[in-house]
What we know:
With about 200 residues, the protein is α+β, with helices and mostly antiparallel strands.
Amino acid sequence: MSTDDLPKQPIPVARLRSRAPNPFDLAPDAPACAAIAADLDIRGLRKLRFAGEILADDNRDWRLEGQLGATVVQDCVVTLAPVTTRLDLPVTRRFMQEPPEAVPDEEGEAEMPEDDTIEPLRNVIDPAAVMIEALALNLPLHPRSEGADLGDAVYAAPGVTPMQDEDARPFAGLAGLRDHLAGKDKPEEDEGEDGA
């Protein structure tokens, strides 16, 4: 089973009530959570719920506001042991008939607007797709189990002394040499004038 096989709940925009909230509440079952976890390439997804509402926004556009809750299990980047993380976060999407266009910068390259909650308005709004996208965007990038440490990775050919971090700082040695030379070149203090 893949996420393509999950029951979708897209809501036709034509059916949305403009004068009242349009609630939704998604709580995928265990097989659906397993399919989502496989699609996101994570070890497991124990719980997932996405609830909220779709509201009219300026008579032409729509706004989805929801709360995403999930318990995800990922591999530790150091030990590969399972790492469980609880996610609880608000999610907002603005579906606009005329999204802001990319603005060319000084070099002529298009810069997208900074607001990443904006999406073009289609014939349907799919809270399930928003749920999976929000989950993917908020997964921990480098999950670590308690006490796991990457340490210092040291690589060298056989018979060659490995280079350490300190060796990559060439000016640290020069500063020491400068201080040493400054101490030698410092004139000795006069011991006093003869006959004093």
